[in-house]
Amino acid sequence: MRENPFDLSGKVAAITGPTRGIGRSIALGLAESGADIALIQRHNQDDVKKEVEDLGVKCEIILCDLSKREDLHACIPRIISEFGAIDILVNNGGIQRRSPAVEFSEQDWDDVISVNLNAVWFLAQAAGREMVKKESGKIINIASLISFQGGINIPAYASAKGGVAQLTKALSNEWAKHNVNVNAIAPGYIATDMNEALINDKERSVQILDRIPAGRWGSPDDFKGSAIYLASDAASYVHGHVLTVDGGWMGR
Hints:
about 250 residues; alpha/beta; 7-stranded parallel beta sheet; 8 helices; about 40% helix; globular
């Protein structure tokens, strides 16, 4: 173990959905701890790349549409070609579709499952092959409170995030013996674009806030610490855990 167990210097971390919200904060947090960063994103938007490079680490954009199998299969090999390794994978990218279950369209179902669950599986599998081979690695999947609760009008999202939590445990059961840590972070109600509809619903927003013991919606920066921890040597004996970062919501 390193003298500072939270030091990620010399590590290569790849993050999906890094251009805003939780993904951006995690990318910056890992970079602040010394990791080189591969930004897995759909468009060649370089705002976060510049922010990461200003921290003095290497950063490259890896173009990948999480809904396309061919992009997913090419993603990890491209990261290894560019950086020489992959030590940390953060499966953060996701989408949301809201509709009553009886009206939920096939297309919305397929879109959400494709990005929020299938992409997590294919990237984790590809990264896991490399990590198991070298007997070292960290995979952090972004789950949700909806991994534990069903939600309302989000059947595909609930199914995908429930799957992410179970996939995390399934991979951990196989790969822990290879020194590969597979864990998840389950965000609570966070002030991001994905939750804009809830934030703008005054009645629902008040109901949510009233239940959060911390008395506030979460911020993307609230995830820097948990991501650094799970990506570091400090979490070397943590396997198959779903860490809630929710202001105390699940304790109510």
